[in-house]
Batch of 2 targets.
Target 1
Amino acid sequence: MSESILLSRQYLFAHTSTPIRVMRIDDQEPTQPHQHEFAEIIFILSGSGVHETGQFRHHIHPGDVMVIRRRRSHAYRETRALNLINLLVSEPVLENIASHLGSLPGFHSLFTFEFTRWEQKDFRQRLCLNAADLRTACADISMIEEELAHGGETGSYLARARLSTLLALLARRYGTHSRGSAGLDQRLGQVLSSIDADPAAPRSLSEMARAAAMSERSFQRYFQKATGTSPATYLLRKRIQLAEPLLRDHNPPRSLTEIAFLCGFNDSNYLSRQFKKLHGISPREYRNKHR
């Protein structure tokens, strides 16, 4: 196989303040393997072909949606009248959206754990939109294009908002239109979404691994690869994020002990230590700073 070409973030987003780009491709030709320094969300509009990533090849059809995260090599083969839309998004933008939409069922399965579909060589779990949903997605993409063309601070804000709406639609549809029974990406995604939805709930590593139908060792390995951190650290940070607005709320102010219990900590001292480790200041200092 020929060496994979790397497409840089600077090359595609050099002339825009909003690291989002829409590329419409008619009659996509076969390509050499290539990687990106950004995320790519591909919408197959019509035609057919073979999509290749690593040693895994699968046929693509109208309605298929593929998520290619940073540094994932892929290529098109055997294309026939293949028309598609490439939605290119910088990883920081996608991660910011994930911080707000991560509790939605299907979001982490589709976007955070996308690599498991390639590693498991099981693309039956891919998202395939029906005709109505594909039209809706294309309309959202057109609105993103309009806001990007408008430019300025308002255009950038609205383009990101439109993108969030589109990704929420895809997350909602993933469980409905994905092919086959729940795969590894869906099981892992359900665990991560449940943490985002309710960080304060008591959870042990063994319970999370059991919910994903995995051994603790495998669960930790996949979790670390997807999020860049361990399950325990991810859960800890989510609980601290949950505490932040409660510390800023002064109507009326809650005690640190009450906030600790509301956010899943066993005592306020542990919350204080972990909060200072993450933010460099104590919860009391954080509260005074936001008076």
Note: The chain has 13 helices and eight strands.
Target 2
Amino acid sequence: MGAFGLSETHGILLREENRPLASSDGLGWNSVFTSVQREQPYEDGYAARPDHLIILHLNGYVRVDRWMGVSRQSRMIAPGGTFMVPGGMDFRVRLNDPLSTVHLYVRRSVLAEVAQELYKGDPDRLEFLPRIGDADPLIERLILSVRDELLAANPFSKNYIDYVARMIAARLIRNHSSDETRIRPELATPSDMQRKIARVTDFVQSQLHRSMQLEEIAAVVDLSVSQLSNLFRKALGQPPHRFIINLRVARARELLATSDLPIAEIALACGFSHQEHMTRILRREIGLTPAAYRRSIS
């Protein structure tokens, strides 16, 4: 699964009248493509793309008209309302007023991966429902968290984005698909949960000096990324990316306390992209810069 680029979207962001504010194009995100923009009124038709599109309205009320085949719907959409187009569907849309939006595409392969775990039947037969104007507070919060990561330009955001993408996929399957009666209930924690956590911990600690992808961490315990995320949520109450950050911070504190290494070298040894990145994370996590922490324990 390669990086999800702008060329794989419907191209709404490329309209001349729209003003892009940020996009994940070129960031190497695999699970989702996200953009933030100010859109001007327009009407146009778009051919189907394989991936699922969710548009979150950031202001309103705004009237939107949508055509799918001969079916036409018109809604006044409030702030927080969504416009969802499942992969594989052609559509036509008319936006009647200026609008600030977040566009988020979820990879079809991510939906398929999560559906394998949640859906009792053949995941290929699961159909997602188009929406216009519907509010889903959980999806809204998740999309806003992706937007915030995009705007923060966090170099370690990819693992977090992969995690959130699977949370969005699970929500779409459970609440925006055609056969909710065949969704499996969440399974109990497996008996070998602690063993898996221990193996993952050993692996992550041995690789803290570099960037890690969730796929390679999951492979250590023969899980999918979605299964790994569920394991961490059930066993530790936190997602994998948070667990990794905690280990990086712990290693940095240890080296600051027990070595005379320059702070820049400690940052690289703990997997931070540079000294400023470690400084920002430590200030957020412990309320001190690396230099201040070193002085406080000397």
Note: The beta strands are 19-23, 32-39, 42-46, 52-57, 62-68, 71-77, 81-85, 91-95, 99-106, 131-135.
